[in-house]
Design a protein that fits this description.
Layout: E1 4-5, E2 10-13, E3 17-19, H1 27-40, E4 46-51, E5 58-63, H2 65-73, E6 78-85, H3 88-101, H4 107-119, H5 124-131, H6 135-146, H7 150-157, H8 163-171, H9 177-186, H10 193-208, H11 225-264, H12 267-275, H13 283-290
Parallel strand pairs: 3-5, 4-6
Antiparallel strand pairs: 1-6, 2-6, 4-5
Protein name: ParB family chromosome partitioning protein
Length: 291
């Protein structure tokens, strides 16, 4: 991919920039990007390539989708950008490389990025060289994706299972998986806690399948007046219950205090206490009795 960066930063209209490889952003991380740019500005310009069309020029985004979307969210109409010379294919590959180079990606992201590069004819060594990962790791990722092993892939990404063991499990038949785990144990690839985790993952894979189900949090419904009234009544009932319990406890405490006061005023009772060695009472009790 031959791309020559420009010598200066240009202000590019945001509405003329096309994102070739759009990605879903983590909302929390995206808010942090917006806050950071709002406070200190854009530390690194985005990168685009120029294409001339009717009504142009127009631009294709090479890298910097998060920064571009943050500028949009802040109501900006232009964004600082470096303009490079590259065709659409080179821009798309550059975007994929940037996404793959990020360490905190999910299995579905790898499917979208590394899988996309493989579909465009790039070999495993080429992909590994471009994104800075080992060829063995890339081969394992591609093979697991081809077999639909998203669950194993996530385990590899989180470091729970070595990619060599994940490949053996993916290639093995159901009755051969225990033998694969035993082999990994003998080779000291899985020991102790990691072996238990691997067994649990294998069992989940058997029960729930190879793929992962991505669910979205359902949107909360707006509160109606009936719901608010019900919540208020329930809260009031709880407070009334607390008040009744407090009054009951106060009544019992008053009864006990009066009973002890009358007992301690009885000479025969105090004589019995003296014979048993009880000649004093705790300070807190004494203060309570003197009220």
């Amino acid at each position: 991919m031959a791309a020559i960066p420009a010598q200066k930063v240009e202000m590019i209209p945001i509405n003329k920039i096309t994102v070739l490889n759009p990605r879903i952003r983590n909302k929390k991380h995206f808010k942090e990007i917006i806050a950071n740019i709002e406070q200190i500005g854009l530390k690194r310009p985005i990168t685009v390539t120029r294409r001339m069309e009717a009504g142009g020029p127009f631009y294709d985004l090479v890298c910097g989708q998060g920064r571009l979307e943050a500028f949009k969210a802040l109501g900006q109409h232009e964004v600082p950008a470096l303009v490079v010379n590259a065709n659409e294919e080179d821009c798309l590959v550059a975007s994929l490389v940037e996404n793959c180079a990020r360490r905190q990606h999910r299995a579905i992201d790898l499917l979208h990025d590394i899988g996309g590069m493989k579909e465009r004819g790039y070999s495993v060594p080429e992909i590994a060289r471009m994104i800075g990962l080992s060829a063995e790791y890339i081969h394992a990722v591609i093979r697991l994706l081809e077999k639909g092993e998203e669950r194993l892939l996530r385990s590899v990404e989180s470091g729970q299972i070595p990619f060599s063991v994940a490949l053996e499990i993916a290639e093995a038949e159901d009755h051969e998986i225990q033998a694969a785990l035993q082999t990994a144990y003998e080779k000291k690839l899985l020991r102790g806690r990691k072996l238990l985790i691997a067994k649990r993952i294998v069992e989940m894979r058997r029960q729930q399948g190879k793929g992962l189900k991505y669910t979205t949090k359902p949107k909360s419904r707006p509160l109606s007046s009936e719901v608010l009234l019900k919540a208020f009544q329930e809260d009031a009932d709880r407070k009334r219950m607390l008040i009744r319990r407090a009054e009951t406890a106060k009544a019992r405490l008053t009864f006990i205090t009066e009973a002890m006061r009358q007992l301690l005023a009885d000479n025969q009772f105090t004589a019995i206490l003296a014979e048993e060695g009880f000649t004093s009472v705790p300070d807190a009790v004494a203060k309570r009795l003197q009220r």
